Amino acid sequence: MAVLGLLVGSFLNVVIYRLPLMMEREWRLQCQSLFGQPEDIKKFPNEPFNLLIPRSRCPHCHSMIRAINNIPVISYLLQKGKCKDCNNKISKRYPLIELLTGLLTGFIAWHFGYNLQTLFALIFTWSLVCLSMIDFDHQLLPDDITLPVLWLGLACNIFNLFTDIYSSLIGAMLGYGILWIIFISFKLVTGKEGMGYGDFKLLAMLGAWLGWEMLFLIVLLSSLLGSVIGISLILSGKQGRNKPIPFGPYLAVAGWIALIWGHEITDIYLKLV
């Protein structure tokens, strides 16, 4: 299963890079169509551009990456982190995402066993990896991922895979509503927007998969992670005080922890209280 995860991680790298560009292209074309303005779309080639076409290329020399040079992690190590054709460095993030996805996939299979629950847990996990990296790069949580995965969470809980359907439905509604209320309250008090609507949809997605009972844990864990990491980055000078910090990755990490250990953490908390 870990090998499958490495292969999926390679595809997730494509999604993380291309999906925001596909969305930007679509937005520009819509602006041109709606307002009749001469939008500069020369930056976008006329050839089809989606998750499958064109084939991956080196960002430096634009040479096509052959299949033999695109084996997850192994090709990066064999080529010493450099392009085979132009010898420019390849970002370490590509093999790291492949390795992370492989490890998470193997752990999910070990934790849940080989059953239907594992299949859905893998889809959930892969989606969170993808959403986290896109939000980290662009402060964007695409509806193309969050909404279908939200509906999938509701569908799988019809069969009580992770929670019952009533808890799932309430979780989706509360997940969106909780952050929406926080957003409106913060805006009324400060006049600023503290988060994006994508965060609402992501928490709604997590609620649909894990049920309303896990929302408190997810919000608490994500807030703690965001506070600790955010303050650390500001104090170290790597993050400006006025620069927004994406909240999606922290929600995703908290949601994955709740998927694996949510009930155990909740039981420990209740016993301490």
**Uncertain ranges:** none
Q: How large a portion of the residues is in β-strands, by DSSP E?
A: under 5%
Over all CA atoms, what is the radius of gyration?
Answer: 20 Å
Averaged pLDDT: 86
- The SSE string, one letter per element, is HHHHHHHHH
Number of helices: 9
> How far is it from the N-terminal to the C-terminal residue, by CA?
39 Å
The largest pleated sheet is described as: none
Q: How many β-strand runs?
A: 0
Structural class: mainly alpha
Bin the helical content.
Answer: 55-70%
Shape: globular
Summarize the structure in words.
The protein is mainly alpha-helical and 273 residues long. The protein contains nine helices and no strands. The radius of gyration is 20 Å and the shape is globular.
What would the keywords be for this entry?
273 residues, mainly alpha, 9 helices, 0% strand, globular
Task: Write a brief structural summary.
This protein is 67% helix and 0% strand. The protein is mostly helical. α1 crosses α3, α1 crosses α4 and α7 crosses α9.
